Amino acid sequence: MANSTWAIDPTHSEIGFKVKHMMFTNVSGKFNQFEAKIENEDNAFETSKISFSADVNSVDTANADRDNHLRGADFFDVDNFAKLNFTSTSVEKINDGLYNISGDLTIKGVTKNITLEAEYSGLMKDPWGNTKIGLSLTGKINRKDFGLTWNAALETGGVLVGEDIRLAAEVQFVKQ
Question: pTM to 2 decimals?
């Protein structure tokens, strides 16, 4: 049995999210700085141990004022909690190419178990001889579960920022 280590290829990866704004449209964002690693046995994805961290100071919603608010104490509080982290606890094969990845997500010092759906592309060689894998990940969390509770009431009823955050990542990993 051979152990394999895979590092994320940041130039071919994107870590993003969407949240309801004013209860009827979505605002998208992403993290520009992140790290991730997969370790598995004999390249078998279901044996994978996955770790991920993002520099929350790199949050980017294409609006500087909103990004600064997200970095502040109302949301991520980057002065006290510089990173968000995910560590897998299990990888379960659902069917060919589809997996559930469960693990512990820590945001703002609060850790909760979440499950992400993963579409796994299998192994591929790039034109330079590197062995790669690709994943499309989706999931949903409630931001209030992680202490991200700021909001503002709207005059017409409802709130400015939705509670549910939809997670989406397109990532490539290269075998080390």
Answer: 0.91
In contact, 146 and 85? CB cutoff 8 Å = no
Question: Helices (DSSP H) in 64-145: which residue ranges?
Answer: 64-71
Superfamily of domain 3-175: Lipid/polyisoprenoid-binding, YceI-like (2.40.128.110)
Task: Flag whether pLDDT at 127 surpasses 70.
Answer: yes
Domain boundaries along the sequence of the chain: 3-175
| Residue with tokens 């071919």, as numbered in its chain | 12
Helices (H), 44-119: 64-71
Residue with token string 């590092």 = 7
Query: Over the stretch 97-112, which tens digit does the pLDDT of each residue have?
Result: 999 999 999 999 999 9
115 has which bridge partners?
102
Query: Nearest-CA neighbor of 29 among 76, 80, 73, 74?
Result: 76
Per-residue pLDDT tens digits for 28-74? 899 999 999 999 998 889 999 999 999 999 999 999 998 999 999 98
Residues 6+ away with beta carbon under 8 Å from 135: 118, 119, 120, 121, 169, 170, 171, 172, 173
- If we measure between CA atoms, which residue out of 88, 83, 89 comes closest to residue 109? 83
